[in-house]
Amino acid sequence: MSSLAMRPCGDFRTSYKQDNTIYETKTVRGFAILAIAAACLAPLVLDAYYLTLFIQVSYLGIAALGLNILVGFTGQISLGHGAFFGFGAFASAWLSSQFAIPVFLTIPLAGFLSMGVGMMFGMPAARIKGLYLAIATLAAQFILEDFFARAEWFSGGSYGSMAEPITLFGFAFDTDESFFYIALFALVFMYLWGCNLMRSRDGRAFVAVRDHYLSAEIMGVKLNKYRLLSFGISSFYAGIGGALYAHYLGYVSAEGFTLMMSVQFLAMVIIGGLGSIKGTLMGCVFIVLLPEALEGGVGLVKMTDWGNTPMITDGLAYLKEMAIGLVIILFLIFEPEGLAHRWQQIKNYWKFYPFAY
User: Fold this and answer.
1) Helix axes 259-272, 277-302, angle to 10 degrees
2) The pTM of the whole model exceeds 0.85
3) What are phi and psi of 32, to 5 degrees?
4) Cβ distance 283 to 272 under 8 Å?
5) What is the pLDDT along the chain (357 residues), one digit of tens a residue?
6) Which residues does residue 252 pair with via DSSP β-bridges, in sequence order?
7) In sequence order, which residues have a C-beta less than 8 Å from that of residue 347 and are 6 or more positions away?
8) Residue 166 CB contacts under 8 Å (≥ 6 apart), including other chains
9) Rounded distance, CA 211 to CA 110, Å?
10) Within a domain: residue 99?
């Protein structure tokens, strides 16, 4: 009993430096390093199916973090994130094929090109908010979709575009096992950069614009500047994720970057938690694994005696199509702060157990 009574309980941070650390404790930092080291061994023990899922989580998670910086941290809205993701994919493939630039350089260049396009659409969008902002970003989605379909010099038009594999010092990362390390490095680097961005002056300005833009403006925060900057950073992340997607698959087609992809990115942010970096990754993992879980559930039902009836099979197929929308509604009703909040609640419970406070 004495050990429980003497256990520290509360917030013991006494400086801004402690308050702005990426990891809450040294134990958390140790577990993060251990998790990355264990992930490096994954290609040795996992088959191609699980490696593919991780790579998918990596490039989608990077793009989703960009959207969370815009929506969760700055309080803006975007329904065109899937189009910026596609622009990064086409841009990297175009740069490598037309200008013979090494692929490991075209990926960041594609991010900067996507950033420029995002800021171009963000210039008028930075002056509006609410429903009008949503419509403006939706227009960007349709404009870029039409551009992908017509600009054969850039995207290949209806035929699509080939994307070369990433090569470094003569070694081609053209297998799941080798590309896994590229995806892991990109994921860790971009998320650490995102964490540091939120700890900087610009990151605090984003949050101020989100929480109360009038107070932020009174304190000297330039609203248009930071709204535009958030659009640029969001598009940069989308471009990096899209470029990784292109060079992993080796082929890019305009049909893949529709409004549905933008809705999926929004679902990742909502489910993971608005304004949470770790929640973004949780939401991405959830959305990537959701179709796999539904597919497995449908397979189990079909193995039963009544699973082959038309009513059951048609109903299950419809459920798979509506799953993302249904999950968004359920999270908005029962867990509006996302998986990150629920994880924090679980940690607090075990931290204070067995005491109620």
Assistant:
1) 110
2) yes
3) -65, -45
4) yes
5) 444 445 555 666 776 666 677 777 778 788 888 989 988 999 989 889 999 999 999 999 999 999 999 999 999 989 999 999 999 999 999 999 999 899 999 999 999 999 999 999 888 877 777 778 888 889 999 999 999 999 999 999 888 899 999 998 888 898 999 999 999 999 999 999 999 999 889 999 999 999 988 888 898 889 889 999 999 999 999 999 999 999 999 999 988 899 999 999 999 999 999 999 999 999 999 999 988 887 777 667 666 666 566 666 666 666 766 777 888 888 888 888 899 988 888 877 777 776 655
6) 161
7) none
8) 103, 104, 107, 172, 173, 174, 179, 182, 247
9) 32
10) yes
Q: Is there a contact between 177 and 39 (Cβ–Cβ < 8 Å)?
A: no
C-alpha span between 120 and 9 (Å, rounded): 49
Q: What is the largest CA-CA distance in the chain?
A: 74
Half-sphere exposure of 92 (CA within 13 A, CB side): 37
Name, in order, each residue with C-beta under 8 angstroms of 4's C-beta and a sequence gap of 6 or more.
354
Which of 47-56's residues contact partners 24+ apart within 8 Å by CB, and which partners?
48/176, 48/177, 51/176, 51/177, 51/180, 52/176, 53/288, 53/289, 53/292, 54/180, 54/183, 54/184, 55/176, 55/179, 55/180, 55/183, 55/248, 56/288
Structural domain contains residue 165: yes
Host domain of residue 127: 49-266
**Is 349 part of any domain?**
no
What does the alpha-carbon distance between residue 269 and residue 309 come to, in Å, rounded to a whole number?
Answer: 37
When divided into structural domains, the chain yields a total of 1
Nearest to 225 by CA among 215, 236, 213, 237: 213
User: What per-residue string of b and e applies to 40-55 under the rule 16 or more CB within 10 Å gives b?
Assistant: eeebeebeeeebeebb
14: exposed, middle or buried (Cβ count in 10 Å: 0-12, 13-18, 19+): exposed
Query: Does any domain span residue 334?
Result: no
Q: How many CB atoms lie within 10 A of CB 104?
A: 15
